[in-house]
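Example S7 (structure tokens).
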């Protein structure tokens, strides 16, 4: 008789889940905003928004023993035998796709619309002008999908999708994780055209931050669990491009009183994710795409498709295990899809 041993090696989820289940008193709502280090939202001191290679927060790690004596003492999850603070993982999908990209896409679109890049009426109320341009942008996006043989569930572009009630609002793009990655890739293509055409430093900085995010996503999608030295150097280059270019855009926006390119604790968490050799216990550089929630949520979607949305849970498990058995013993050609 065989048996299965379950081991918890990592705990991941959205930030709200982590904060509530592990009782982190230092979180995105507090001045000291990180449960992994003592970085703060203040610009002075140990700033969470210092994205340089040798940022001060790298020397300010929070230790497991201190956590267990404070917040951890009231968390049931932290009492599981073998639990260690280093097991708590920041998730790339919730941090980048559903956080940082929402800011980048919203601001990236806003600046293109201000340039009247997609073409449309140059006078009239801002909402009508933006809507007319976004309709044209949607047509160009369809051509982009067709040319690259891509499919998406992305709904039509709109001002509402940028969560803009007034033009002075901070633009935040609303979308699903996979759709946001695709829209960011489309936006990068447009900003590369603009940057080459104008040679403007600000336009080049926007193209650089978008390029960095897309490069991080491409590295995360590679199948290797651990990064080679070459890939680790590629990830560092992408991290540096994405976040330092973002910091330049954010400083420029603050100087002009604009709400574009806002910096959030999620930018700091992305910084953590893209430094897989910190803290340096093992020398291993884990691919940030390994074990991320994207694959778990995709798995739930596949279960829904297998069940047709109306199957009892025990029947669904049996059906899934049968398909898994067929896949393992007959191969992917004759087994039904998982
Ligand atoms: Zn931190």
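Recovered sequence:
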């Amino acid at each position: 008789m065989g048996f299965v041993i379950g081991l918890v090696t990592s705990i991941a989820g959205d930030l709200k889940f982590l904060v509530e289940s592990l009782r982190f008193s230092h979180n995105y709502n507090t001045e000291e905003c990180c449960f992994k280090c003592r970085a703060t939202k203040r610009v002075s001191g140990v700033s969470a928004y210092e994205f340089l290679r040798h940022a001060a927060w790298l020397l300010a790690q929070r230790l497991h023993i201190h956590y267990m004596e404070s917040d951890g003492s009231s968390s049931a999850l932290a009492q599981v035998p073998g639990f260690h603070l280093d097991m708590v993982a920041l998730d790339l999908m919730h941090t980048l796709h559903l956080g940082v990209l929402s800011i980048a896409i919203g601001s990236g679109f806003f600046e293109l619309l201000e340039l009247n890049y997609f073409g449309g009426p140059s006078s009239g109320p801002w909402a009508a002008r933006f809507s007319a341009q976004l309709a044209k942008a949607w047509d160009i996006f369809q051509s982009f999908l067709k040319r690259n043989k891509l499919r998406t569930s992305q709904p039509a572009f709109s001002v509402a999708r940028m969560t803009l009630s007034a033009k002075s609002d901070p633009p935040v793009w609303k979308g699903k994780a996979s759709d946001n990655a695709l829209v960011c890739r489309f936006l990068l293509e447009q900003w590369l055209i603009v940057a080459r055409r104008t040679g403007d430093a600000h336009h080049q900085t926007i193209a650089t931050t978008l390029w960095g995010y897309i490069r991080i996503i491409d590295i995360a999608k590679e199948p290797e669990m651990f990064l080679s030295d070459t890939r680790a150097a590629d990830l560092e280059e992408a991290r540096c491009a994405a976040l330092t270019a973002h910091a330049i855009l954010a400083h420029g926006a603050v100087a002009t009183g604009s709400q574009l390119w806002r910096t959030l604790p999620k930018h700091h968490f992305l910084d953590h994710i893209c430094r897989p050799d910190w803290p340096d216990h093992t020398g291993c550089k884990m691919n940030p795409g390994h074990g991320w929630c994207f694959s778990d949520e995709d798995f739930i979607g596949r279960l829904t498709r297998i069940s047709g949305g109306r199957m009892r849970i025990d029947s669904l498990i049996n059906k899934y295990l049968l398909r898994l058995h067929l896949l393992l013993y007959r191969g992917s050609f004759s087994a039904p899809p998982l």
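Notes on this example. Residues 229-255 form the longest helix (27 residues).
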